[in-house]
Amino acid sequence: MHNHRMELDQIAIALFGALAAWLSQARSEKLRRWACIFGMLGQPAWFYAAWKADQWGIFLVSVIYLGAWMRGVWVHWIAPPPASGVGTIQIVPRK
Q1: How far is Cα 68 from Cα 40, in angstroms, rounded to an integer?
Q2: The whole model's pTM is what?
Q3: What residues does each domain of the chain span?
């Protein structure tokens, strides 16, 4: 007999995954930078669900996604912002 209630890991995967995908497409940089945070929040549910179901391929893909979300955290929250403007080099002719 199957239990048809949605489990917490499935709710977390649906909620955080959809929110991360939605935010990753935002026009606003202030909103877009939150995609990686919600993606990271969903990762424990992915790991648990894959482990619980013995789905080791999904577990491996979850590790790859974790790396991608970690990159987003680094780029949008930790690393110093890039320098503004375009740097130029001026070559002065000899006289």
Answers
A1: 9
A2: 0.78
A3: 8-77
CB 50 within 8 A of CB 58: yes
H or E element that contains 8: helix 8-24
Contact 7, 15 (CB under 8 A): no
pLDDT in tens, 9-38: 999 999 999 999 999 999 999 999 999 999
Longest dimension (CA), the chain: 91
Q: Is 37 exposed, middle or buried (0-12, 13-18, 19+ CB in 10 A)?
A: middle
Dist CA 93 CA 95 (whole Å): 7
* DSSP per position, 26-86: -SSHHHHTTHHHHHHHHHHHHHHHHHHTT-HHHHHHHHHHHHHHHHHHIIIIISPPPPSS-
